[in-house]
Design a protein that fits this description.
Elements lengths: L1 H31 L10 H32 L4 H17 L15 H4 L1 H19 L1 H5 L5 H5 L20 H16 L4 E2 L1 H8 L6 H8 L4 H15 L8 E2 L1 H16 L7 H10 L4 H8 L4 H10 L6
Parallel strand pairs: 1-2
Helix pairs in contact: 1-2, 1-3, 1-5, 2-3, 2-5, 3-5, 8-9, 9-11, 10-13, 12-13, 13-15
Length: 310
């Protein structure tokens, strides 16, 4: 019931902001005036209307992403309800004919939803949701191959984030790489190594890597504490810029090859874990091996599990 109430709260909040922004845009449009008569609003007031309209547009776009995506994250069981209550009706409204001058609104809908200003608010909010769901990296990222992964040695993850890493990774794999960077920052270390990568792989219980570790009889929380103890004993290692160690780069390159050899188009957290275990010289790999997580067992578990979703 708590998840259901959360989805309903998100949906009501999004609709309230959509109506508020559409009403304000429609009112501002009326205030600015049309036709041969000059507008009675002053230049400074028109400028304030501009600022408020822009701010409301940003708020509505953000609310659409937070409301719908937040429902999927915090209330996965009822995530579909947010699309039924918010997204689907707004898409239908976009298909409704615009209100013509001198005629009533189509099907008795509120004028602010079928006028041009309100329609632009709805279209912009849906566009923000679409971009938020796909992500620019989904639109522009390169396919996973050895040539792309070889470029890892030329790239630094710091500065612009782990999305600089080329290759076609699943969403959870990108999340793990992002957490790898956050873990390095948490320990005040500029070099991101395999230990940070392992923490990133274990950060989300939904990831294939976390599920493989659990299936092999290892407690992720205990494993994370051991890794954190190893990292903590090294102390802070700050540099001029953040970057991945060569060993960590080689692990990611190996994961790309494992995915390609398996006939898959994307690199998942399971492939990253398998590549990490196969790197026998790394501390993270040795720690996994001491817990009974071997390369063969990881490879077998990954093959038995469904491929990680994009």
């Amino acid at each position: 019931m708590r998840q259901l109430a959360l989805v309903l709260l998100f949906s009501v909040g999004v609709w309230a902001l959509v109506f508020l922004a559409a009403w304000f845009a429609d009112s501002a449009d009326d205030s600015l005036g049309h036709g041969p008569l000059p507008s009675g609003i002053t230049t400074i007031n028109a400028y304030f209307l501009t600022l408020i309209s822009g701010a409301l547009g940003l708020v509505v776009g953000g609310a659409m992403i937070i409301g719908v995506r937040g429902s999927a994250y915090y209330a996965r069981k009822y995530a579909w309800l947010a699309y039924v209550l918010v997204v689907f009706p707004l898409v239908v409204i976009l298909l409704v004919p615009l209100e013509r001058f001198g005629s009533g609104p189509f099907l008795g809908l509120p004028s602010l939803l079928v006028g041009v200003p309100g329609r632009m608010v709805i279209a912009s909010s849906l566009g923000a949701l679409l971009i938020g769901m796909t992500g620019l990296r989904m639109l522009f990222r390169a396919p996973a191959d050895e040539g792309a992964s070889a470029a890892l040695t030329q790239r630094a993850v710091g500065g612009t984030g782990s999305r600089d890493v080329p290759g076609r990774f699943t969403g959870l794999a990108w999340r793990a790489l992002s957490f790898m960077q956050e873990e390095a920052k948490r320990f005040e270390q500029s070099n991101m190594g395999t230990e940070h990568l392992l923490l990133g792989l274990l950060s989300d219980s939904r990831s294939q890597a976390s599920r493989v570790v659990v299936e092999l009889g290892v407690d992720p929380s205990s494993l994370k504490r051991e890794v954190e103890g190893i990292i903590g004993r090294r102390g802070a290692l700050l540099g001029s810029s953040a970057s991945m160690t060569q060993r960590c780069q080689r692990v990611i390159e190996r994961a790309v090859r494992i995915s390609r050899n398996s006939g898959l188009r994307t690199v998942g957290t399971g492939h990253l874990l398998q590549a990490l275990v196969e790197s026998a010289d790394d501390v993270a790999s040795q720690l996994l091996a001491s817990s009974g997580v071997s390369a063969d067992r990881v490879a077998a578990a990954v093959r038995q599990m469904p491929a990680e979703a994009d």
